[in-house]
Write a structure and sequence with these properties.
The N and C termini lie far apart (about 40 Å). By secondary structure, the protein is mainly alpha-helical. It is globular and about 50 Å long. The longest helix has 27 residues. Helix content is about 50%, strand content about 5%. It is built from 8 helices and 4 strands; from the N terminus they run ααααββββαααα. α1 crosses α6, α5 packs antiparallel against α6 and α5 crosses α7. The chain has a two-stranded antiparallel sheet with strand order 1-4. A two-stranded antiparallel sheet has the order 2-3.
């Protein structure tokens, strides 16, 4: 610890570069790594409560703002978002009805998950094989199926063209299935969980906008 209160931490160096997640090898490795990490985290039991809520606990996503605040924003957007009335109405409808989706998620397996698996938190070698998973800040106890849902959400709503995107999703799922399988109910929940990830990201940046951290363009992009 330095004199000004900053903390210095040493970590072992791991070889690898940030993957593009565009080749089949990278995507299969990503899916397999997700499954292996999920299996490893399932063996960890902690007495302490995680610092972050589960994705489905949207009402606990902020200690300052409520879902009602977000719904009000979506139904009566300020001038900077007035041209986005239709997509914001869809977001408002999802937020208003999301509680009705909770019962079908109640029986799904729960465990510790990484919660933010995407290319910025991965390293890969020259063969497209993942060598490391980084940034475990958001580890929390959540639905097991939320881990692949987060990864799939970022693939689906990323920068890939639609035809390429679906091939990427298939390669990821093949990689995942090579190391683990979801229960049928978990697989059927993936569409809702993928939407939940997008809503959570939207709320994250909306709240940051209200706090003066991000500008309107960031929120517009999420909408």
């Amino acid at each position: 610890r330095t004199g000004d209160g900053k903390i210095a931490v040493l970590f072992p160096y791991i070889e690898g570069e940030r993957p593009a997640l565009q080749t089949e090898a990278e995507l299969r490795s990503f899916g397999r790594t997700t499954a292996l990490l999920t299996t490893a985290l399932s063996r960890i039991e902690l007495a302490a409560s995680p610092a972050y809520p589960a994705y489905y606990e949207l009402e606990q996503a902020s200690s300052t703002y409520s879902l009602d605040d977000a719904v009000q924003f979506c139904t009566a957007p300020p001038e900077a978002f007035a041209d986005l009335t239709d997509p914001l109405a869809a977001v408002a409808a999802w937020l208003t009805g999301y509680r009705t989706k909770l019962p079908e998620l109640a029986g799904l397996p729960r465990q510790l998950i990484h919660g933010d698996l995407n290319r910025t938190n991965l390293l890969a070698n020259s063969r497209g094989e993942l060598t490391a998973v980084l940034d475990f800040e958001f580890v929390t106890r959540d639905l097991r199926a939320m881990e692949p849902a987060v990864a799939l959400s970022d693939l689906i709503f990323g920068s890939l063209a639609e035809e390429t995107m679906w091939k990427a999703v298939e390669a990821y799922l093949q990689g995942y299935a090579s190391a683990a399988l979801l229960a049928c109910a978990e697989a059927e929940s993936l569409p809702i969980l993928i939407q939940l990830r997008r809503i959570d990201v939207f709320l994250h940046f909306l709240y940051r906008y209200w706090d003066g951290i991000d500008n309107a363009d960031v929120v517009r992009n999420q909408i």
